[in-house]
Amino acid sequence: MHSDSSLTVGLGDRAYDIIVGRDLLARADNLAAAQLTDRHVIIITDSQVAGYHLDSLASACSRVARRCDTLTITAGEASKSMSVLSVLLEDILALGVDRGVVLVALGGGVVGDLAGFAAASLLRGVDFIQVPTSLLAQVDSSVGGKTGVNAAAGKNLIGAFHQPRLV
Prior knowledge:
alpha/beta, Rossmann fold, 4-stranded parallel beta sheet, two-stranded antiparallel sheet, globular
């Protein structure tokens, strides 16, 4: 038995739920059924988080998604760049996506910011889900819709506000 809690962030048609609990990844198919069922899901994670959590989440998503793909970036702040974003977007497009795709950000703030900005930019905006794995991402970067990458002139200077469909 699981005792999850949820909170709805009320933003009109962009409202979303934040689910808090234990062992959520293995139950993602049930918890996110409305966002994942019969859709093309692409999980974006980093090289550090992948070894711990990717298999569990991909397995759960595969139970309800029409298709589930995974993309892994190099862990670290250096990946929060236009060059990595460009490669990520090309990799996503190579998977044959349409506007029904949902991107799932599995990781800390770098992954969440990068995947969220990719979702805001791809096909002029597609759905995404935040699955924060660090404490800072859980309480800060996964909520509020702030997405983006760094520039030579400073951090978080290129980005967009794009609310997740679920956290």
